[in-house]
Design brief:
- With 448 residues, the protein is an alpha/beta fold.
- The chain folds into 3 domains: 132 residues, P-loop containing nucleotide triphosphate hydrolases (Rossmann fold, 3-Layer(aba) Sandwich); 71 residues, Orthogonal Bundle (Helicase, Ruva Protein, domain 3), CATH 1.10.8; 164 residues, Zinc Finger, Delta Prime, domain 3 (Up-down Bundle), CATH 1.20.272.10.
- It has 21 helices and 8 strands.
- The protein has a 5-stranded parallel β-sheet with strand order 2-3-4-1-5, with helices on both faces. Strands 6-8-7 form a 3-stranded mixed β-sheet.
- Helix 11 packs across helix 12 and helix 12 crosses helix 13.
C-alpha cells in the first residue's frame, strides 16, 4: 500500500461511525459471548490454533457477528473477503472463490469468505458456495439473524458449525460504552457520560452494541460542552434518540418467541404478562391481524366452553384489527387479551376433536346406526325408530348416537370449570358428581 492509499484509509477510519471505529481487533477486545469465545472454549482454541472450519453465526442484530468474523480474520492472518447477500449475486461469489484459489496457490494464504445476511441468498447462490467450502478453498463465515436450520441449505449446514450468539447483557454494553469513551479510536476522553445517561443508553439498546454506540455518538453531539469536555446526561439521550430499540423480527425467531410468550401468558391466566408481550409486538410493528388471529385460535383452544363468550370477544378483536388498524386497535387487542387471560380455561374442545380425528384415522370404518340414518330413501321404513328428544322432558332421551364399537367412548373430557361445568351432558353428570366428591374446586378465574 502506498502513502496515498494509507492516508486515504486512515481518513476513512477517522470518519467512520463510532460503532465501526470501535470494532474489536482481537479476541481479548471482544466483549460478550463468553460461552462461545471465552477462555478455554472450543471455538476460541480453534481460532487461536488456526484450525477453524466454516461457521454460521446466528444471533440478533448487534450481538457481534460481523465483529467476530473480522477478529477471526485478524487472529488467523487469513485474507478477509466480504460479500453482502443483499447486493451480491452468484457472480460475486464466483469472483471471491477465484481470488481465494489464486491466493492459496500463489502464497498459501487462506481466505475467510464472510457472507453477511446469508439467509437472503437464494438456493442457487448458496449452492455456488458448496464446492469451495467442501474443498477448503474458503472458510465460510455466514452471519444471519434468522434460524439457519430454516433459512440455509442443508448441505451448507452440514459442512459448517452453527454458533448461536445471544443479545449482549447490560454489563457487556456498559463495558463497550466505557471503552468507547476512553479509547483513542473512539471519543478519547472528550465526552463524559453521566451514570443516568449510561443507564438510559443500556435500557434503550435492547442488547444491541451497535445501537448503544450509535446512541452515544448522537447524544455527544447535543451534550453540553464544559472546559473542552462534552457532558451527556439522560435528557441528552432522550433528545438524541426518541424511540427505544428492542429486538423484534416479523418473520424470525424473536417473532415466534414473543407470540409464544403471549399465548402462554394468557394460558397461565396472567393478564399483566399478556399485555406486556402484546406491547412488545405493538412496539415492533407486528401485523395486528396476526395477533388477533392467534387470540381467535386461543379462545377455542384454551378457553373453549369454560367461557363461550371468549370466542365472541376474540372475533370482535379480530374485526377491530381488520377495520381499525394501528394505533387505535391496540386498545381492542389489550381488552381481548386481558379477557382471555382472566377467563376460565378448558382445552376440552381441542382435545375432543383431536381424539375423535385419531379414532377416525386409525380406527375401523364404522356405520351410522340405523335409527340415525337419513329417512329419505327406499327401505327407510324398516329402520328402528328414532326417538325425537323434543318429545321428552328436558329435551333429552337415552339413545345411542355413536356407532357400534364406540358406544362408551368419551372424546370430550370437560374441565369442570366455568360454563362448561354448568352445562354437562346428562351422561357426564355422574362423572361430575364423582369429581366433586373427590374434592375438586373450580378455579375459574385467577385474580392478581
Amino acid at each position: 500500500m502506498d502513502l496515498f492509499s494509507e492516508h486515504a484509509e486512515e481518513a476513512k477510519r477517522a470518519n467512520a461511525p463510532l460503532a465501526v471505529r470501535m470494532r474489536p481487533r482481537s479476541l481479548d477486545e471482544f466483549v460478550g459471548q463468553a460461552a462461545i469465545v471465552g477462555t478455554g472454549t472450543a471455538l476460541r482454541r480453534a481460532i487461536e490454533e488456526d484450525r477453524l472450519t466454516s461457521l454460521i453465526l446466528y444471533g440478533p442484530p448487534g450481538s457481534g457477528k460481523t465483529s467476530l468474523a473480522r477478529v477471526i480474520a485478524n487472529v488467523t492472518h487469513a485474507a478477509f473477503v466480504e460479500v453482502s447477500a443483499v447486493s451480491g449475486g452468484v457472480a460475486d461469489i464466483r469472483k471471491a472463490i477465484e481470488g481465494a484459489d489464486a491466493r492459496l496457490g500463489m502464497n498459501d494464504t487462506r481466505t475467510i469468505l464472510f457472507v453477511d445476511e446469508i439467509h437472503r441468498f437464494n438456493r442457487s447462490q448458496q449452492d455456488a458456495l458448496l464446492h469451495a467450502v467442501e474443498d477448503g478453498l474458503v472458510v465460510l463465515i455466514g452471519a444471519t439473524t434468522e434460524n439457519p436450520f430454516f433459512e440455509v441449505n442443508a448441505p451448507l449446514i452440514s459442512r459448517s458449525r452453527i454458533v448461536e450468539l445471544q443479545p449482549l447483557s447490560d454489563d457487556d454494553l456498559r463495558t463497550i460504552l466505557r471503552s468507547a469513551l476512553t479509547d483513542e479510536r473512539g471519543l478519547a476522553g472528550r465526552v463524559v457520560l453521566e451514570p443516568d445517561a449510561e443507564d438510559a443508553i443500556v435500557t434503550r439498546s435492547g442488547g444491541d452494541a451497535r445501537v448503544a454506540l450509535t446512541t452515544l455518538e448522537l447524544a455527544a453531539e447535543v451534550g453540553e460542552e464544559r472546559e473542552g469536555v462534552v457532558h451527556v446526561d439522560a435528557e441528552d439521550i432522550a433528545s438524541a434518540v426518541t424511540v427505544r430499540t428492542l429486538p423484534y423480527d416479523k418473520q424470525g425467531d424473536i417473532h415466534y418467541d414473543v407470540i409464544s410468550a403471549f399465548i402462554k401468558s394468557m394460558r397461565g391466566s396472567d393478564p399483566d404478562a399478556a399485555v406486556y408481550w402484546l406491547a412488545r409486538m405493538v412496539h415492533g410493528g407486528e401485523d395486528p391481524k396476526f395477533i388477533a388471529r392467534r387470540m381467535f385460535i386461543f379462545a377455542s383452544e384454551d378457553v373453549g366452553n369454560a367461557d363461550p363468550q371468549a370466542l365472541l370477544v376474540a372475533h370482535a378483536a379480530f374485526k377491530a384489527a381488520e377495520v381499525i388498524g394501528w394505533p387505535e386497535c391496540r386498545i381492542n387487542l389489550a381488552q381481548a387479551a386481558i379477557y382471555l387471560a382472566l377467563a376460565p380455561k378448558s382445552n376440552a374442545s381441542y382435545t375432543a376433536i383431536d381424539a375423535a380425528l385419531r379414532e377416525v384415522r386409525e380406527g375401523p370404518a364404522r356405520a351410522v346406526p340405523d335409527h340415525l340414518r337419513d329417512r329419505h330413501r327406499p327401505g327407510a321404513e324398516d329402520y328402528p325408530a328414532y326417538r325425537y328428544p323434543h318429545s321428552f322432558e328436558d329435551a333429552w332421551v337415552e339413545q345411542q348416537y355413536l356407532p357400534d364399537g364406540l358406544i362408551d367412548a368419551e372424546f370430550w373430557q370437560p374441565s369442570f370449570r366455568g360454563w362448561e361445568a354448568e352445562h354437562l351432558s346428562p351422561k357426564r353428570e355422574r362423572r361430575s358428581e364423582e369429581h366433586t366428591e373427590n374434592g375438586s374446586t373450580d378455579r375459574s378465574r385467577k385474580g392478581k
